Each structure stands twice: as C-alpha cells, then as structure tokens.
C-alpha cells in the first residue's frame, strides 16, 4: 500500500487526546489522511492501537500512546515520548472529555471535580507540557474542543457547561499570551455529535427517545453532527497557512447557537 505523499498537513506532527473514540478518533484519522504524523492518545489500548492501525492502513503514520491526560506525570512522559518518536510537534488537539448529567443540587462534589479534571485540567496539562516545545520552534497550533455547552446554558449539565466555558476562557487567555510568538490557539464548540459519549447519555436517560428529540430540537439542521464535521473544522485550524486565525471560537453545531 502506498504511503501518503500529499496532503494539507504534510510534515506536521499532531498530538490528539481522546483519539481512541468519537470526535478525537475522527480528527486523528483525518489528520493522518492529510499527511500528518499522528500521536493517538487515550487510555484504551485496544481502541487506540486500532485507530493507529487504521491510519497506517491508508498509508498514514500514527502511533498509539497510552496516557491518562489528567495526570501531570503521565502527560510529561507522554510529551517526551511523542517528541522522541516523531522528532517534533506542531499541532495539539485537547479533545479528551466527558459529559455527565446533573444540576448543581444533584452533582456531587467528587463528580464536579472529576468532570473538571478530564475537561479542563487535561487541556491545561497538555498545553503546559507542549507549549514550551512549540514556543522553541516558533510555530504551532493548539485546538481546544469545547462544546455548545460552553457558550449557552443546557438543562441538567451544570458542571459540563461550566467546564466547557472554562475551555473557551483558556483558549482566549492562551491566544493572548502565545499568539505574538506565532502559536495559534483556537477552540471548536461542537453541537451534539453522534459518538459513544452521546450514545451513553441517551441510553442512560429515563426517556432516551425524548432526549434524542431534545438534542435535535436545539438545531436548525434536520440531523445531528458527525465526528467528521468536527474533524474538518480541526483541519482548518491546524493548517499552517492560516496564520491570521487565532483566539477564535468556532461553533459547529447545526445552528444551535443562532436560536
Ligand atoms: N459528542 C458530542 O456531542 C460532543 C459535543 C460537544 C463537545 N464534545 C466534546 O468532544 C470531546 C470528545 O467527545 P466524544 O463525544 O468524542 O466522546 P467519546 O467518544 O466518549 O471519547 C472520549 C475520549 O476521551 C478519552 N478520555 C477520557 N478520559 C480520559 C483520560 N483521563 N485520559 C485520556 N483520555 C481520556 C477517551 O479515551 P479512553 O477511553 O481511551 O481513555 C476517549 O477517546 C469531549 O471533550 C466532549 O466534551 C462532544
């Protein structure tokens, strides 16, 4: 099988967290198809190896790196391993995340903390460990995956809305700090995308059909999003030529925010 020799991300190295499933998997595959060498990051070895293999099967280059991205030590080791393997790093996608239902009354403190650890602390830690390298190279793109929940209030998603809003704030603060040094920091806010995370949410609801209908009713489109819709937006932010695009918050949500 022929190796990929052309693509919009040739010669780029990308690290994608939460790439063993859903949106992150689609971003990793898409980056690989565009010629990037991809570090597929997650905790599930079987799924991670399968994603890396699927990229190699179409002529791309990828390796699975197992890491819990809420752990400072694990993220430090991860970044060193990726740099050792690929000799550089150009694109970082902070995608690992989790949504759990609940308002502030029925969200337990431990659940609140866990949600912030995976959605916010992980993005901070991965940025903390990768930015020094990007800054030394004088170029790079960081893409944070927030949510429509970061831009509006959603019923029974108090911790998730707060965590995803924090990612929007982190994006803007990082853009202010690092864009003068040619590091572009942008954020994508997906609306509901059919992934394992969303399927788990729907299946665990007392009325799964009503929940799916509610997801659809928030949109102007007659359908929910696909992981590939989000991957396309990520490619846009990753393109090295898009040097003027930083500090942006892009909704890819079927028009949910327009209501
Ligand atoms: N789906 C949607 O409708 C939607 C909408 C807006 C925003 N988002 C956001 O998009 C991102 C991806 O969501 P998804 O729907 O694709 O979810 P998903 O299919 O459940 O995937 C979540 C990913 O996060 C990884 N992950 C979770 N905890 C981790 C940890 N401690 N360390 C390392 N990796 C960890 C999982 O990897 P392992 O299982 O291998 O650990 C998995 O690859 C999330 O940030 C989510 O909030 C999703």
UniProtKB/TrEMBL annotation:
Q: Which domain of life is it from?
A: Bacteria
Tell me a Gene Ontology molecular-function term this record carries: glucose 1-dehydrogenase [NAD(P)+] activity
Keyword list (alphabetical) reads: Oxidoreductase
> Which major enzyme category is it?
oxidoreductase
Question: EC number(s)?
Answer: 1.1.1.47
Q: Could you say which protein family the record assigns here? A: Belongs to the short-chain dehydrogenases/reductases (SDR) family.
The record's annotation in NCBIfam families points to: PRK07231.1 (NF005559)
List the protein's name: Glucose 1-dehydrogenase
The protein's organism comes out as: Pseudaquabacterium terrae
């Amino acid at each position: 099988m022929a190796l990929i020799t052309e693509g919009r991300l040739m010669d780029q190295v990308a690290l994608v967290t939460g790439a063993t499933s859903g949106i992150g998997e689609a971003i990793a595959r898409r980056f690989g198809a565009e010629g990037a060498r991809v570090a597929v990051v997650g905790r599930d070895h079987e799924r991670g190896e399968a994603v890396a293999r699927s990229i190699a099967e179409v002529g791309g280059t990828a390796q699975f790196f197992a890491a819990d991205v809420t752990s400072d030590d694990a993220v430090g080791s991860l970044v060193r391993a990726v740099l050792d393997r690929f000799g550089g790093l150009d694109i970082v996608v902070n995608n690992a995340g989790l949504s759990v239902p609940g308002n502030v009354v029925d969200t337990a403190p431990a659940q609140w903390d866990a949600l912030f650890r995976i959605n916010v602390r992980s993005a901070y830690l991965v940025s903390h460990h990768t930015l020094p390298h990007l800054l030394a190279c004088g170029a790079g793109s960081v893409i944070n995956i927030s949510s429509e929940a970061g831009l509006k209030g959603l019923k029974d998603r108090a911790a998730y809305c707060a965590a995803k809003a924090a990612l929007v704030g982190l994006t803007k603060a990082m853009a202010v700090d690092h864009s003068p040094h040619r590091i572009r920091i942008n954020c994508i806010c997906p609306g509901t995308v059919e992934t394992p995370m969303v399927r788990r949410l729907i299946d665990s609801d007392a009325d799964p059909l009503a929940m799916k209908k509610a997801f659809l009713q928030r949109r102007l489109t007659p359908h929910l999003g696909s992981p590939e819709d989000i991957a396309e937006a990520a490619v846009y932010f990753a393109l090295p030529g898009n040097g003027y695009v930083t500090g942006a918050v892009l909704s890819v949500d079927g028009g949910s925010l327009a209501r």
